[in-house]
Amino acid sequence: MLTQGNTRLLVFIFCFAVFSTFGQDRGKPPVLTTNVWSEGSIMTKNGNELIGLVRFQNVVDFEDHEKQLTLTAKDVVAFEFFDDQTQKQRLFYSFPYQDKDSVIRPQFFESLIELESFALLSKTDPVDISRKLVRTDDYWNGSRISEGYSEILVTLTFSETLYLRDSEGNIKPYLRIENKDIDGRVFDRKRTKSKVLDSDLLVNVLRKDVLEKLEKFASENKLSFRDKDNLLEIFRFCKENLER
What we know:
The termini are far apart. The chain is globular. The longest helix is centred in the N-terminal third of the chain and has 16 residues, at 4-19. A hairpin with a 4-residue loop joins strand 10 (143-166) and strand 11. The relative contact order is 0.10. It is built from 4 helices and 12 strands, in the order H-E-E-E-E-E-E-E-E-E-E-E-E-H-H-H. The protein has 2 domains: 4-199, no CATH class; 206-244. The chain is 20% helix and 50% strand. Strands 1, 2, 3, 4, 5, 6, 7, 8, 9, 10, 11 and 12 form a 12-stranded antiparallel sheet that branches. The chain is an alpha+beta fold.
């Protein structure tokens, strides 16, 4: 019979098995965390368009009734597919960008919204897993009166960086979002942090009058430039009302 403790152990083992692969190679940023094939298309660097089943996990896997291919960012111009999880069409480009070793190489970016003067891009880091042993004891007036419990807290950290790509092709980071999912025997909790990486970036990309109108729209609708969904809503307003 499975006890509650055994059930938690099995859940932990399952989660570890699913997510541990993402911690093995921190240099490659997976966007999808499931082994899912979707209908989509790929435009390759040699000008060929591939239409069939597409899967993206660090590299792009392609399959149709004739062939199977695995492509990296240096092989691809762009690819897209319909994501059943989000029920949205997703579009990715391969752009040259400097990695953590200061080497410029092709990397995949997801295009979230494209405007005349800039585009909002996204890149997701590998899922980070950390484990910490914690112990609690019961105290009264500074003296321990009973022995508490020990447990392992498992923390999954999902990090995403949003970039702005200007009309000249320059890509610069704007916002860093970090979601932590902490799982323990006694309590679970989630925590989200966001940090603006370049407060002058919007000033440099947008005209002053456009930025003032966006700030007014955000204030009137209680939207934040530090929140991904809010930022997309602000930029949609810009595309639909200020670029006509």
